[in-house]
Design goal:
single chain, 385 residues, mainly alpha
Amino acid sequence: MSTASNKTTLPYLQIARGIAALFIVFNHTSQSAIYYWKFHALSDFFETGWCGVDFFFVLSGFIIYYIHARDLGQKAKWKDYMYKRVTRIYPVYWVAALLALVLLKAAASSGQLHRSEYVDAFQSPSYFLKSFFLIPQKRFPFLSVSWSLCYEMYFYLVFGLGILIDKRLLWLLPIVYLIINIWLIFDARIFNNFAVYFLGNNNQLEFMFGMATAWFYLSSQDREKKGMSLHPILRWLWIPGVVVFLCTWYACSTMPAIFGKMSYSTKFSFGIAAAVIIFSIAHWKQMAGTVVNRFFLLLGDASYSLYLIHTLVVVVLFKFFTRIRLYPKGQLMDWGAFLGVVVICVMVGIALHLTVEKPLMSLFRGKTRSKQAKNSPVPIEPLKP
């Protein structure tokens, strides 16, 4: 999942991004291990690893507000904001999506694919264009993980209205969400309309938590600048945050009727836990330059690439193992193969980041800086996306 980042001042948030991405990788690897090998790692503990997306949504709300709060209501900032958001999301996504199409075409030609989403990627122009440009639709895009990017783009657009017109337009997000969900109490059929379902989806709640957390964080920074030191205990809030996060994880595994994947209780609980963790670790400024820290910072940098590419890697590896009849046998072999798939996913994700995503980001940032330098007599230090 993509979020803007400011790793120079909030390094631990970057590490948190990498860990959240790992949750999602473990989730999809676990699902494939069950399907192909009948291997249940830690009694399917990683099945709730999808909660990494929930963390990403809260973090997106936090970072976008943190970086662009001062731009709200400044119409001149809108083009630069949208340029950064579009160039951050689409270029590397299109690379991953085109790679997915190549693999899907090869699999379809060999008779290994029968799901309609994959077939329609080549036969339905409407489905293809919606998937390629991240336009919300009832069905999953052909690169399935990109469903979350549709929510990201909607959030970016609403925030963009706050920059283009007035910051009060940010209230559109909670107002529309509340109206739809109050309406839902009286008429559950409204969710049959996909546009209504999308706008009232509980994922929207997590972006709001992120923005609220950023507002509190910036307020605390202002108080510190005025000599009103932040109480040290607030820097330890990550501990109860992690406890709530793990309890919600457990509840999703044991009480799916109440804590379903898209339920309000799940999104609220994961959202609050993520907000508390983010608020706490955002205050950690200094970081030792250890090998472990450098690796997780790199993993955080590569989290978007890893998120986009890992399902393709997982599918290819498991199909390859099936083709050559390499079935792990015994706990040691099963765990070795399981962790091996995760490691390869991480390596491919980092490789995609270093060879594709990072050069593309440098290219588009360079264009932004050149335009700023040309239009301003005073050198501008750009905010880091």
